[in-house]
Design goal:
Gyrase A, domain 2; Isoleucyl-tRNA Synthetase, Domain 1; 5-stranded parallel sheet; 4-stranded antiparallel sheet; 25 helices
């Protein structure tokens, strides 16, 4: 039983004995004591005034006296108004440390035979992965690791958006202007190669659009449709999509290519397969660099017709309704939403129809009790509608659906735009942080004596720690501005700073072994005391880790783990500076501090692993 449960049970018994009332753990408000007060845990006594008919501070005094007399773990207490601050005895903290030290699975829960599915990344096959995808991938991966640590079986999936007009733009641009070039013939990473043609299409389209604006046809449309005080530049900026769909020659050719694809034209399908194959090859290389993987891929080309059976079922049950033109809709106004179309009048499905079918397919494939969609907050409304529809259809997994909505990533110069090529490509960013880490390593000179391959592996791990930690430490729902220069700073609240704490500990342990010191002298460590304040703080931080892992999983918030690792590393760095470990004042102190250091190292390694970050032993 953990200490919070021990205290809660004690308070329940104390209230019964002192005031004759029955309460439960849910009636008790307890927090970690603020650092500016003495104590470890604080019980709030204001809720008990009705039961005890006494002032909160009097109740706190009586509860404190009862708990210190009846709970061996409680050493002393103090009262601040209606707040009872309890100090836990050294024996409890010492026993806890020696029990968990050396346990490499500390913080991980036993398997619970429950399954969760997490969808993340879900890219389009017309461009390479970029900075926005990196945030999505890192959130999805770290949440999958958190749920695994919480005891779940985790299925990692993505839906690849491999069809549609955007993909046809890349295909058409290659067909018109590539002259048979391939990634191999140009020495270009395959997904970047395809993305270059997506950007080229936009460039050619803009040229076409600009030329059209000078025509009499464009002038007539402007005069007939302009709003009051709207100048030509403003009008044509807003009119671009209409032009693409109604007048553009490139737009016409792209739409015709999409129609040929949907009709199964062999030549079009072959080009589509070839170019998508290039993109998939590039994607897999980026995934390997980031150290992530997936258990199953779903493809929009295979799922975009799904959901029609579910719509028909909803019509028969009266959940959906049909308009006179034959289109099918659902009325969600009673849920604070809107009317949503599910099938067009020509019988074709819309995006949400596909998502309904894909959700049903995934449940048939894996039967998860939870499905988590990691998608930017631009799609909040879409998922509110999707989840409400699945709930009304009576899907057995409907209550386990969750949209992990995260804030978009901006550059200091503004929003990224793939069509205009103003994005930070994932591969370029990874290369940049690796180069920055290499430069910093050379300046320090501490790994130059190692074999070159080992140096490169250390540099790679440091670089990815810098990148991943910089992104994950931000609360998911918060929009963030990504400054590439700041992200590769190897000092401050960064991944390498946390790694350095681990490196320090491993260095101490190596020196201890070289000096013939036994690293597992727990019997000797058990006689150490009194425990120093910084040692106590580190032990209490270690104690909080398992509960934090569960909370982070339940809240879909890996940023709390990143900030925990930083705080633990910061605490150890200070302890390391202020206290000697191998030259401690006594053999007992040395043995205790070795156990403490080992426990910190294991917990840092586990915590960073949950973020997808590998540790290093030298840097």
């Amino acid at each position: 039983m953990n200490i919070t449960s021990i205290i809660e049970n004690g308070v329940i018994k104390a209230v019964k004995e002192l005031y004759g009332a029955d309460i439960s753990a849910g009636d008790i408000t307890m927090n970690v004591t603020r650092k500016d007060f003495e104590g470890d845990y604080t019980v709030v006594t204001f809720p008990f005034t009705r039961i005890a008919k006494k002032k909160p501070q009097d109740i706190a005094q009586e509860l404190g006296e009862w708990l210190t007399a009846n709970l061996a773990e409680v050493d002393r207490f103090n009262v601040i108004q209606g707040f009872l601050n309890l100090s836990i005895g050294e024996a409890y903290w010492r026993n806890f440390l020696l029990d968990m030290a050396g346990d490499e699975n500390y913080g991980r829960q036993p398997r619970n035979d429950r399954k969760v599915m997490i969808e993340y990344c879900s890219p389009n096959t017309n461009k390479p992965l970029h900075l926005g995808h990196i945030r999505n991938i890192l959130l999805g991966w770290s949440c999958s690791q958190l749920y695994d640590a919480a005891g779940y079986d985790v299925v990692k999936v993505q839906i690849v958006n491999d069809r549609g007009i955007a993909i046809c733009k890349s295909m058409l641009a290659w067909q018109k202007w590539a002259k048979g070039a391939t990634p191999q013939s140009t020495g270009t990473k395959p997904d970047h190669f395809v993305g270059d043609y997506y950007v080229l299409f936009e460039k050619k389209f803009q040229e076409e659009y600009k030329a059209w604006q000078q025509t009499a046809e464009a002038s007539a449309i402007y005069e007939a449709n302009k709003k009051e005080d709207q100048n030509p530049e403003q009008f044509f900026k807003a009119y671009k999509n209409s032009y693409f769909n109604e007048y553009s020659q490139l737009g016409k050719e792209a739409r015709e290519m999409l129609q040929r694809w949907e009709a199964g034209d062999e030549e079009t399908l072959q080009l589509w397969k070839t170019m998508n194959g290039w993109v998939y090859e590039g994607f897999e290389e980026t995934y390997r660099k980031l150290g992530v993987s997936f258990d199953k891929y779903y493809y929009e080309s295979q799922t975009y017709l799904l959901g029609k059976d579910a719509v028909e079922e909803g019509l028969q049950k009266g959940i959906f309704y049909k308009k006179e033109d034959g289109s099918v809709w659902v009325d969600l106004t009673d849920a604070g939403l809107d009317h949503k179309i599910l099938l067009r009048s020509d019988g074709t499905s819309v995006y949400i129809t596909q998502d309904i079918g894909t959700a049903k397919m995934r449940y048939q494939d894996f039967a998860p009790e939870k499905m988590v969609y990691v998608v930017a907050d631009e799609q909040n409304y879409h998922f509110q509608v999707l989840f409400e529809i699945l709930k009304r259809l009576g899907e057995p997994y409907a209550d386990g659906l969750y949209h992990l909505s995260y804030g978009m990533v901006d550059l200091p110069s503004g929003k990224m735009k793939s069509r205009e090529g103003t994005v930070v490509d994932a591969d370029d960013l990874i290369a940049e942080v690796v180069e920055e880490a290499r430069t910093a390593a050379k300046e320090r000179g501490e790994i130059t004596s190692l074999p070159e391959a080992e140096q490169e592996e250390i540099i790679r791990r440091i670089a990815l720690a810098a990148l991943k930690f910089h992104i994950i430490k931000v609360f998911p729902k918060k929009r963030m501005v990504f400054d590439p220069k700041e992200s590769v700073d190897l000092q401050g609240q960064t991944g390498p700073y946390v790694q350095n704490a681990y490196v320090r500990i491993k260095s101490v342990l190596r020196k201890a072994e070289q000096e013939g010191i036994d690293l597992n002298e727990k019997d000797l460590a058990a006689h150490y005391g009194p425990i120093e304040a910084q040692e106590r703080e580190l032990i209490q931080s270690l104690y909080a880790f398992p509960d934090l892992v569960l909370e982070a999983a339940n809240q879909y918030d890996p940023s709390s783990i990143a900030n925990y690792c930083y705080d633990l590393a910061k605490g150890f760095h200070k302890f390391y500076t202020d206290h000697s470990i191998l030259r401690a004042e006594s053999p007992e102190a040395r043995a205790f501090r070795i156990q403490l250091s080992s426990a910190v190292a294991n917990t840092l390694k586990t915590g960073m692993h949950l973020l997808g970050i590998e540790m290093v032993e030298r840097m």
